[in-house]
Amino acid sequence: MGIISGLFSMFGWGVADFLAAKASRKIGYILTLFWMQTIGLLVAIIYFLAKFQSFNMGGIIKFLPTFIIIGFLQIVGYLAFYRGLEKGQVSLVSPIGASWAIITVILSVIFFKEPLLKNQIVSIILIILGIILVSTNFQEPLKIRRLKTFSGISGTKEGLIAMFGWGISLFLIVPAVKTLGWFLPIFLFRVFMILFLGSFIFFSKRSFKISPRLPLLVILVPIGFLDIGAFFVYSFGVSKAYSSIVAPIAAAFPLITILLAKIFLKEKIVLNQIFGIAAILCGLILISIT
Predict the structure, then answer these.
(1) pLDDT tens digit string along 225-240?
(2) Higher confidence at residue 132 or residue 17?
(3) Smallest Cα–Cα separation from 226: which of 82, 36, 16?
(4) Residue numbers of the domain that contains 48
């Protein structure tokens, strides 16, 4: 069940991120994030009204501070990631952000005492090596290369911020999911995400308006559905299996995103970055093998 959940989450996030990259270049990453989160929340509200007659209010109150923290970390991760997609190459930003799995796995091993296998240790090394390779262009002169590593290549820094924001938050959600079930934790932290993001847009005096043109809506609506659907499936998976198994499979979503970016965006990357992407993807797959 954990593997199946991870695969569905991988597909949902992979397609959503590719579409988000296209939307971010049309209306900006902040509005893309706000409206896709809002659409996803509307879907969750419909399910909530249809299915829930009662719920554990005591458990909700107990985990309320956790949901606030998760909502904040998720927004930080998403803002950074979508900013990276807007200005950088999808095929570089996506695998770095997806490396949140190593943060979740390491924290789960330390705090939840989940077993860490030898192949998972190797995969963590592969992912770290892959991040270094993806973040560097070896075809540039050495002096420029040193200055650019982890900071100058568009989207690298944002991908790293997303990696830590998502990795920590998806570790924190596990106890709430095991107590409250797969739906309510995702629903509640999504509410806080929208509150944080809406406040940011309002106080920065930005506009909430987007063009009602059909091509834009055709992109935004599927992003909202796919993103929250992937979260729900991920939550269901970690309620039934180890998070150190579900997380790495779900985090392999760059397989989908990169494939779509290569086909439709015609992105070009240098040889060492190809090896870096391959190392990250191999690490994400290997870390899920038990």
Answers:
(1) 999 999 999 888 888 8
(2) 17
(3) 16
(4) 2-286
